[in-house]
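Job type: complex structure
Entries:
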Amino acid sequence: MNRQCQPASPQVDVSRRRFLRTALYAGLASGMGATVPLRAWSQDCAIAEMPRTLVNVMLQGGADLRFLFMPAPGHPDPVYTGLIWQARRVLYDSEYPDYETLFENEYLPAQDNRTGLQFGIHRDAEWLWRQFGEGRVAVVCNAYCSRNRRHDQSILNADAGEPELEVLNFDRNGWGGRLVEYLGPHVNSVELGDSVSTFNKGSVPGARLDQVVHAEDMRDMALAAGSVENPASARSVLARALSSWYDVRSQETRSEQPADWPWHAFYRHYESLRDFGGRVEERLSQCQPLAESLQSMQLASSGFAQQCRNLYDLCQVPDVLQVGAVSMNYGGWDTHDGEAGEIRRNLSDLFASSGGLATTTAAIEELPYRDVSPASQLVFYFASDFGRQLVANGTAGTDHGRGTYSVLIGQQVRGGVYGEMFPQREAAPDADGRIPLQTPGADIEGQTSTDRLLATAADWVSPGAGAVVFPAASGSGLEPGVDVGTLLADA
Amino acid sequence: MRNQAVTRSAVLLAATLIASVAQAQPRIDPGRDRVPPTLPSPAGELQLEGLTLVTRTAWNTAAVRRVLQSFAFGGMADEAHILAWSNMPPEQAIVQMLDFEAVNARLSPPDGGTAAEIGCTSLTDLQNFWSSDAPDNPVRESDRPYHVMLYDNDSFVTPVGLILTWGRAMHTRGCNPFLHRMAFYLTNYHASIHIQNAGVALIRDYYDDMVSALVSGADFVGLMYHAARNGALAFAYGHALNYVHPQTGAFVGNDDFAREYFQLLFSIQGTSEDPDYHENVSIENNARLLTGMMLDQVPDRFGSTNPGDWFVSGIDFTDHQDAAGRRIYNRTAHYEFRMGDESCLEILHQRVCGATADAKLLALGPVAAAHPESMANTPLKLIRFFADAVIDETEAAALRTAWVDAEWDLLRFLRAYAISTLFHDPGRVQYWSAFERNLIVHNANTLDNEESFARAFYAGPTIRMIEQGALVFAPIRDVFGGQTGTDAANDRFVFKNAWTANVNTPGVLAQVQEEYRDGSGEAERWQKRWDEVVPPDPDGVHRVGSVADWLWNRFIADGGQNFDVVAKAQTYSLLATGFDFGALVDPERLDARYTSDDLSDGELRATVESLAGLSLDLSDLRVQYQIGMAVNFITMLPYAFAAEGGSP
């Protein structure tokens, strides 16, 4: 379908103030050699083509995705279901008499079409369950993004896309930053959350944010400006004094100061807000207002709701943002106690039929486009610090583990289960004679390194990117019999 | 790491919804404002191995201001003290500048005694006093309800009063800003918990407990012991419910704090040895150590009907019945309680013994602090917070050596570092968090306590900090701590929101008078008095150029080295006329840009120079407002977001 924006309504017509601001931005942009066709914005609000884009959703705290996926009662290994029932029954809000009842009340039945494996997806993730049924969800089992159980180190590992990294230094690049560098010097990693994660950062020390756009609120990205009507007001005076100083000194200090001069960052903030902020605000005011469904969306996490709104708006202005990668996050997965209450709230926010992603992707599907729907160009990848232990602890929660499931969602994802979803080894004695599902401290054994599948995803964005962005991927861990090279339609 | 439900908007919303009037609260007995004596130079004590004392030539007023900004939110010392300190040997000055006394009268003069009388060592006391209708309560009448713990019509306590009280304490003369900066670090960064997980009452208790420990002279090991045994942490992490079954000996609980005790309190990651030992012996046994730590409740605490508000932070490690009638089995719920003092666990390759969790924590602290990873990482963690975002290997080695020599004496370590060549090295870079930047700016801009108390809370630093992602007791990384300077520097919206604040509400920094009602109910008028603070030129005249230089150094503290000609042109123009330089030069071309070259030659240069030579009547309220405009300009430049170590 090829829909065009409606002509601007009188309510959103270009005001004098906005016109003047546009003229100012145009002047500034032309002065800096920008090539964006500014005049087109006020004339034509057609959506620009959305490039293939990976959306990295970091689930901060170490998500227990074994809570999300559980074996069906008819699992081929009844010993396994018996043990996992004993190991995890205390996690649930209700006291169930047996595993069958638990499964029936908590899970929606799903089946992997390739292997025939039957399992359950938690009821609070109904949208995810539907997406899986439509073949848009890949679940990579026994994945690992780090080898440790520490939040800070593991999040750094995940953001860096380097599971074996052992150095805890946040002044480094992330895989989103490396990906946009590969895509070109004008391509950006866009952070939709309230702080810029390491995921976005580039490779040049002192200039790691040069290809990052921080879009915490897409509808409020411009710097406060003076009043055209009252140029003598204190606000106007200060806005002019500061803008004048920043415009001049940002240019002068580029040549005066070394690249690692600590104050460059603040000049870049100014320039980005001046350039991107003004253009984004202008474009969004000309095209689609925020979808009603997103305006009224109520999530437990207001922060994630805002990120969803930002994602919708991002899809309206990908050319302005020059988007190449996107960063989102959702916190609150460190479920040491009372796990059910916390994780169910989180799963609902993310994956319920009325949750953030369902609402947002539906709204994005309604956006006008030229040739390719922006919704079809997005692939969501869900990362987390680490997985959690198999056996519930004494406070109805789970402690830190390592291995986990990696989940990718998108129209171009080849859906299915990649790897052994409920490894038989978890129900059998290990070398020390201990059965993991009966052993506090035991966790999912990580076999497939996340950089393997992320390299595939990067190749989907741009062929050849995977080997550059994830140079160690080809030699990293891979579960026997698993081919993550087929995760995406034409990677 | 936990969820964060107390959002900025929630706090703002709560603040705006307050309708009730504060109940009368008993005030606190006065009298702890003691002035430390001028001591002979304790050079030997302050010179730690690894650190080199800064030279006398490098120890100047800019150096003194740098120390105050890094360690005391800028402090509230007057110009005479700053000058006096710069003329003293640094090892003598630093003893006066930084201490953990309840009141440091030079660093933060009590200013007539109105605030310092209450001691400032307890947020509980401050909150009670500032929310009360006591006749000597200096807080403006209309602000007092915002400081209450429990609103009249509510059934549970609110975080609003605590958050505003902390912010106000940080800019009240008489409160020791170094003492509170350290307590803030300990509770919001080092051994951090989130108000959502601990609750308002417990997190306030925790902060006060740490202030008390600091004032009593506890060293690093002692402070970590006080933190680890604190009920606020036990409640927030959940190990308050951990126990060992007295019959079966089975452990029931989680290992959350057992892990973070090592990683966060002592910076032990477990990477220097067999990871399995750390995971399966040290952490798992520490989980068993952390049993028998249930909290007591005091019914109707604060008048709250919510039992969740009744918990107290001090844990009674015996078997007993608490004031709420609950049976607490902290002795018998502990690991191998029957063994008494011989109840031992292997942790960090040592036998850690004691009859209770408290006794074992006391024994474990020195073991953990002496662990090689702790000795290597703790000093770097401290210095990253207080002063240096990027520490290279040479600096790290020096700091580690000094930490060994300091023997866990935090005060000695930080004092020695603050007068070291490392701190005053021009290559040192410190990015300010929104906490730090806003408090430094606000403390430099607030000239006396009347100004602080006469103005409404929303004209203080707290709301701006919140708007810029810095909410006290709600660290953005939960147990991994609050917004750092690097976080703020990397966050474009912190910059944007700071810009919005200065541009859209310049009155916060530029307001020159305010009418208010004080504790006696009388209408009063506060008026800004820059004229009493800004030093004149030798001929007694306040000239624009000199006032600008003085303002720059007061707020930026770099000795003027980044005060470029473009900034000077704008600052001079704002001071002299209240308008920007562009409007002054050509009102028809308001958006004209003037480069450094433009301003260094010809008519424009002459204009700048003539502006610098203009005299100002600082007693004129209009001129005072123009100073405020200049402050708004200066504090939105990059140099107000980061500082470096050295300057002329």
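Summary: Residues 234-256 of chain A form the longest helix (23 residues). The radius of gyration of chain A is 24 Å.
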